[in-house]
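Students often ask why inverse folding is considered easier than folding. One informal answer: many sequences map to the same fold, so there is more than one right answer. In these notes we will look at a single instance of the problem. The structure comes first.
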C-alpha cells in the first residue's frame, strides 16, 4: 500500500440487543461496497465483498466486540475471506437474542427484588451461541488487527484484547467465544466471565462498556502505534480514516424531583446508563474536534442511529422490539445513504 493510502478503522459501540441497529447499518455499508465496486470495475466481484476485508482494524465493546469477532472470523477454506457477512451478524441477534436474554429464576423476580440473588440472565445460552458461531477459533486467527475492551475485576485494570498481539504472545491468545463473553459481561445482566490463555494465564472480567462503551478513541491510539512505517514512527493522524457506529441515541430522562430521593439501589441502572452514554458522547466530541483541527473532517464518520419506536433497554427481545430495532436500523441507513456512499467510495479507493 502506498504512503498516500488511508488506514481504515471501524469502531462499534456496546448496547446489548441494540446491536441489531449497528448490524443493519453495517449490512447497508457492505451492500454499498459491492455496488461501488461493481460500478468502478464494470462487474461485481466473484466473491461478494465482506466488511472484514475492507477495514485495516476493527474495534468493539460489548455487543460491538461480538460483532468485531464475527466480522473478522476467517472462512475455514480461505483464511483471507471472512466467514460471515454483515447480514449473518444481524441474524446472530435476531435468531438467538430470545435465547441469550432468557431470565434466570432470580431474574424473573418482580420489581425491586429482580436481580437480588444473581444476574438477570445466565451465561449458558450466550456461551453456546458464541461457540456455535466462532467454534474453536482464537484471537490470533482473526483476519485483521482488532481491539476489544473488557475489565479485569480481580486485577482492577482495563484489558484490551488485540489479535496482532495474540499472534506474537501465547498468553495474549484467547478463545474468541471467551473474548466475546468477557467484553459483554454487563453487570446486573450477565455474571462476570473468565478467559484463559496459555497454561495458566487467566482473566476475570466484566463488560468493557463500563469504561469505553464507545471504543473509538482506544482504536485511534491503537492504530497510531500499530500502523508504524519502516522507521517505526507513529502513523500520522491524517492517514487514518475512522468509521464509528453507535447503538442508538438514548433520550430517556431522569427527573430531578425523583433522583434526589434515590438511594444506592435506585441509582444502579441509571448510573450505568448515564456513564456509558456520557463516555460515548465525550469520545465523539474529542475525535470530531481533532479531525477538524487537522482539516480532515471527512476522514472521521460517526453514525448514531435513531431508536425510532424501539425500546432503549439492552435486553428487550420481544418480537415487537426486535422488529422495531430492525426497522430503525434500515431507516438509519436510508437517512445516512449519502454518508454511506462516501464511506464506501473511500474504502474502495484506499483498499
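Output (designed amino acids):
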Amino acid at each position: 500500500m502506498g504512503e498516500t493510502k488511508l488506514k481504515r478503522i471501524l469502531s462499534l459501540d456496546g448496547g446489548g440487543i441494540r446491536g441489531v441497529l449497528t448490524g443493519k447499518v453495517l449490512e447497508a455499508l457492505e451492500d454499498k461496497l459491492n455496488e461501488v465496486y461493481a460500478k468502478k470495475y464494470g462487474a461485481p466481484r466473484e466473491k461478494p465483498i465482506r466488511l472484514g476485508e475492507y477495514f485495516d482494524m476493527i474495534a468493539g465493546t460489548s455487543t460491538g466486540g461480538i460483532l468485531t469477532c464475527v466480522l473478522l472470523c476467517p472462512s475455514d477454506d480461505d483464511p483471507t475471506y471472512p466467514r460471515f457477512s454483515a447480514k449473518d451478524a444481524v441474524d446472530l441477534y435476531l435468531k438467538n437474542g430470545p435465547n441469550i436474554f432468557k431470565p434466570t429464576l432470580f431474574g424473573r423476580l418482580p420489581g425491586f427484588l429482580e436481580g437480588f440473588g444473581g444476574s438477570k440472565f445466565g451465561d449458558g445460552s450466550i456461551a453456546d451461541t458464541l461457540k456455535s458461531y466462532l467454534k474453536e477459533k482464537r484471537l490470533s486467527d482473526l483476519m485483521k488487527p482488532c481491539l476489544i475492551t473488557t475489565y479485569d475485576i480481580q486485577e482492577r485494570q482495563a484489558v484490551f484484547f488485540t489479535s496482532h498481539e495474540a499472534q506474537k504472545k501465547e498468553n495474549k491468545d484467547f478463545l474468541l467465544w471467551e473474548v466475546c463473553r468477557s467484553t459483554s459481561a454487563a453487570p446486573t445482566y450477565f455474571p462476570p466471565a473468565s478467559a484463559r490463555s496459555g497454561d495458566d494465564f487467566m482473566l476475570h472480567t466484566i463488560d468493557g462498556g463500563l469504561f469505553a462503551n464507545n471504543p473509538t478513541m482506544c482504536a485511534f491510539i491503537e492504530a497510531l502505534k500499530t500502523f508504524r512505517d519502516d522507521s517505526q514512527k507513529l502513523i500520522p493522524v491524517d492517514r487514518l480514516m475512522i468509521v464509528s457506529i453507535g447503538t442508538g441515541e438514548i433520550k430517556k430522562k431522569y427527573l430531578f424531583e425523583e433522583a434526589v430521593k434515590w438511594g444506592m439501589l435506585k441509582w444502579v441502572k441509571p448510573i450505568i446508563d448515564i456513564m456509558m452514554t456520557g463516555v460515548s458522547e465525550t469520545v465523539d466530541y474529542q475525535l470530531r474536534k481533532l479531525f477538524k483541527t487537522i482539516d480532515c473532517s471527512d476522514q472521521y464518520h460517526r453514525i448514531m442511529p435513531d431508536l425510532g419506536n424501539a425500546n432503549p433497554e439492552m435486553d428487550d427481545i420481544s418480537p415487537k422490539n426486535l422488529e422495531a430495532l430492525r426497522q430503525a436500523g434500515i431507516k438509519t441507513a436510508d437517512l445516512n445513504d449519502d454518508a454511506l456512499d462516501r464511506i464506501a467510495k473511500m474504502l474502495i479507493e484506499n483498499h
